[in-house]
Each structure stands twice: as C-alpha cells, then as structure tokens.
Write a structure and sequence with these properties.
Helix 4 (120-125) links the parallel strand 5 (104-114) and strand 6. By secondary structure, the protein is of the alpha/beta class. It contains 8 helices and 9 strands. A 9-stranded mixed β-sheet has the order 1-2-4-3-5-6-7-8-9, sandwiched between helices.
Length: 269
C-alpha cells in the first residue's frame, strides 16, 4: 500500500510528484526522471510502484521551466531538448528537496533516468558526490548522447568516467536507438574510469519495453524482470552490500541472437 501522490514544488518554480511508502520510517529514495513525453501518468505510476516497494519516490517535471505545447509533447508530436545545465538545475533542486525530506534517509538516494532522461544520472552523477546510486534504462548510450554540442557541452565518455556512485544500466537487444556496439562503448567508458556498474542486455526487448502505456513496446515478462533487477540493485547499494570506496565491481550480462543485426531493429509504438 502507498499514500496518494502529492504534487510538490521545489527550487522556487519547479514541480513534481512525491510518492511515499506506507511505512513512516525514513527510507531510501529514488528521484525518477520522465521520458521525452514529459511528466505523464506512466512516470507517476512508476513512482507509485517504487513506493509500494518501500521507497520514497520523487518524479520531477524536467520541463517545469519550459512554456511550449504540453499536449503536443505528451502525444509525442513535439520534442524538447534543453541544455544539460538547465535540466541538471531542476534535478539538483529535486535531489536537495529529497535530501531534506523527513521521510528520506539522505545517504540513500538514487537517481534514475529512462530513455531521453537516461543521460541525466550521468550528467548529475559525474559531479555530485552525495548520490548512493544511478540507474539508466535504455538511455545515455545513443550516438546523440555522445555528441558534444552547445546543449551538451561535456563529453559523455568523460562524464561516465567521473561517476562516483555505482550505476545500473538496462538495455534491450532489439532497441532501435542503442546498438550492442553502443552498449560496449558505455561499458568501456565505465571500466576506463574504474567505475562500478551492473549492466544487462535483455534479449528480444525493444526500446521502451517498461512502458505499459505503449502496447507495441511493452513486454510484461521482460518489464517484471527488469524491475526486479532494479530493486535488487537498490537493495544491494542501500544495504551496504555493494563494495564501498576503494573497490570496483563490474557486472555484465547480455543475451542476443547469433545473427544480431542492429539495422533490422525498428521503432515500435
């Protein structure tokens, strides 16, 4: 059981939804970032699911300061790409809000990104040292995320190498935006930086298979398996079972067909 989601404001002009678990003792927290469609019901549902599993969940609206067509954004007809520092400022405010909340154990906060927002646990985690964990679902590894630009002024490779918190990466073999070569590039950057990670490529999974509001992408069995992986990772890190400072752990698991061909992966709705 969980309590109803609360709409909250933080950082002056930022908004989001806070979901609390039933147990009122201080708990680990997950700041969960939305996909390209904005802060839609799917992300709020994931926050509620995290709360059911015992975590405080905060879902900030990364586009709180954007004044474009919200409905077109939700329908997928518009795409918002803001400068990394602007989005990171919203996330910093969300993290600081979570750290001071009486229901949160401040040393147990994870930052989770999905799809387009997958890059931000890396952007923020590369410079903050108060995160206990980062989690990325099918993001941060597309070629566009590795291209340095005016909007993305820092190299993804260098940011990954500077992660202090252990990171979870979840990928799908049939992702049309992230190839297995992209996965290996991400893995190489983490290992070059001596960063701890747990990473898995799920066979046959397309991009966005966690999203049950998109029937063409959603895969119930795979989504349940990925969620269990997330919960185990959070439990390991928050309980202290993950190696601390001075130790590095690399965990990689992947499954793909012998005739894997990235060019055959297609976008699903």
């Amino acid at each position: 059981m969980t309590r109803d989601a609360q709409k909250v404001r933080f950082g002056g002009d930022c908004e989001g939804f806070l979901q609390l678990p039933r147990d009122e003792a201080p708990a680990g927290a997950v700041v969960i970032l939305h996909e390209r469609y904005g802060l839609v019901q799917h992300t709020i549902d994931l926050a509620q699911r995290l709360a059911r599993d015992g975590y405080v969940a905060l879902a900030p609206d990364l586009f709180s300061r954007w004044r474009g067509d919200q409905e077109a954004l939700r329908r997928g007809e518009a795409r918002v790409t803001l400068p990394d520092p602007e989005v990171a400022a919203v996330i910093d405010a969300a993290l600081d809000f979570a750290k001071t909340h009486p229901r949160v154990a401040p040393s147990r906060i994870a930052l989770m990104g999905v799809c387009q927002s997958g890059r931000y646990p890396i952007v923020v985690g590369s410079r903050r040292r108060d995160l206990a964990a980062c989690a990325v679902f099918y993001g941060a590894s597309q070629q566009r995320d590795w291209n340095v630009s005016e909007l993305q002024p820092r190299s993804m490779r260098e940011m990954m190498r500077r992660l202090a918190a252990p990171a979870l990466f979840v990928f799908g073999e049939r992702d049309h935006t992230i190839s297995l070569a992209d996965v290996r590039r991400t893995r190489d950057a983490l290992e070059e930086g001596r960063c701890s990670y747990r990473m898995k490529v799920f066979r046959d999974m397309p991009h966005g298979w966690l999203n049950d509001t998109m029937p063409g992408r959603y895969r119930a069995k795979g989504a349940d398996e990925a969620w269990i992986m997330l919960l185990r990772f959070l439990a390991d890190v928050f309980s202290g079972a993950w190696p601390g400072k001075g130790q590095v752990r690399w965990e990689f698991e992947g499954a793909s067909s012998a005739d894997y061909d990235f060019s055959k992966n297609v976008r699903l709705e």
